[in-house]
Design a protein that fits this description.
The complex is a heterodimer. By secondary structure, chain A is α+β, with helices and mostly antiparallel strands. Helices cover 42% and strands 22% of the residues of chain A. Chain A is built from 5 helices and 8 strands; from the N terminus they run αααααββββββββ. In chain A, a hairpin with a 6-residue loop joins strand 4 and strand 5. In chain A, helix 1 crosses helix 3. Chain B is mainly α. Chain B has 2 domains: 125 residues, Orthogonal Bundle (Rna Polymerase Sigma Factor, Chain: A), CATH 1.10.1740.10; 67 residues, Winged helix-like DNA-binding domain superfamily/Winged helix DNA-binding domain (Arc Repressor Mutant, subunit A). Chain B is 77% helix and 0% strand. The longest helix of chain B is centred in the N-terminal third of the chain and has 23 residues. Classes of the chains: A alpha+beta, B mainly alpha. The interface between A and B is large, with 48 and 70 residues.
Amino acid sequence: MSLNNLDPQDRDLLYELFTLGLLEPEDMAEVRTLLEAGDPATVEGLRKASIFTSSLSYLAPESKPSATVRRRLLLSAGAPERGVGWAWIFGLAAACLALLVITFNIRQDVERRETQISELRLRLDSSEKLVAQAKDLYDLLRQPSTLNVKFGDNQLTPPRGQVFINRERGVLLFAGNLPAMPIGKIFEMWFVPKGGGAPIPAGLFRGENGQGIHFRPGAVDPLQIAAIAVTLEPEAGSTTPTMPILIAAPVQSE
Amino acid sequence: MIWHILILFAELVSGDDQQLIERLRKRDPDAMSDLYDRYSRVVYSVILRIVRNSAVAEELSQEAFLRAWNRAEGFDSARGRIGPWLLTIARNRAIDYLRSTAGQQQATTFELMSSERITLFVNTEDRMLDQEQARRIRAAFSQLNQNQRQVLELAYFEGLSQSEMADKLGQPLGTVKTWVRTALTTLRESFHVA
């Protein structure tokens, strides 16, 4: 055989047969001689053939060596074994600790968020009540049957303001220029009945910057009321007025 | 199949052959662990397929890795591929064992040594991952007929010459040569087609 007489495909085959040990002895010797001489074409051809034929290893059924092979090999090579040994206990402990910390943090976060949710729910309830109250007041103000009484227009030292009286919904008072509330005192609204009876308590309210708003819900009969009055009373409120009248708004219903 | 995927994953996470070869050349002890973790299954599989004895296969696997470890200094880390080289060493150790038990050792050891020269595994332009090679070679092998598959297995996994195959199969030598030639040509075409 002479390699020079072979076409490229036959050369490839020849090199593959060499790497598989399938060449006849005389051909094997010729290729080996060229290889040892460093013949570039032979080295390159055998290089390709070696890569190719080594891939036939993947035709072997899959198997796994025992762990002792690795241990023995690394000992033989003087390489450190990367076995887990007792390290897994520390690893497990660290993992458990990390899990515990994470769980604790999550629990704290959940509790914090639950508190926030409760606060937001309370604020929402409060806002809903305010909205409902505002709606009630708006209904009171826009109804034609609501009686509107102004007061304080002719007084030299106001308070001034308005009272809205609705038979079904109640009485709404807007007052301005109120005096400052002394400590331990509070404003109290009264219904002064016609016929000279004792004033009837109609609720307590606080003033702020001289302004005060008070709503006394519930049915009320304007025909039975001579006036709406306001006094300053002890903080717990009074059953009868104990202080001078600050506001007196006469009710003139038809 | 799953361990081929593991090999591919190991290759991806632990760097390519070039980095591993460089570390082996520097006698980095951890490189031996990495080499083993990357190739132990395929090396052991091919040896076991050849010797058909797990204890012997483990012994020969250890020998193959140690041989690579002791000879890695000759590798050019910039251009070499250690996987095919290691598989060639593994196959040669196993065939050598088979022949030694059959009293043919002296006649064949030198031939096997020639096929695992380091110079045959450097300067390759082939950058395919071994996993892709494996997939391709198995697909192409399944396309061969029974006779072609048989002669390739006898050659690669039993180390038989073509004459020995002809005797074993009771076929003319020319017929066996034709089967071998056709099988290799078919596989080569599928192997080199990107």
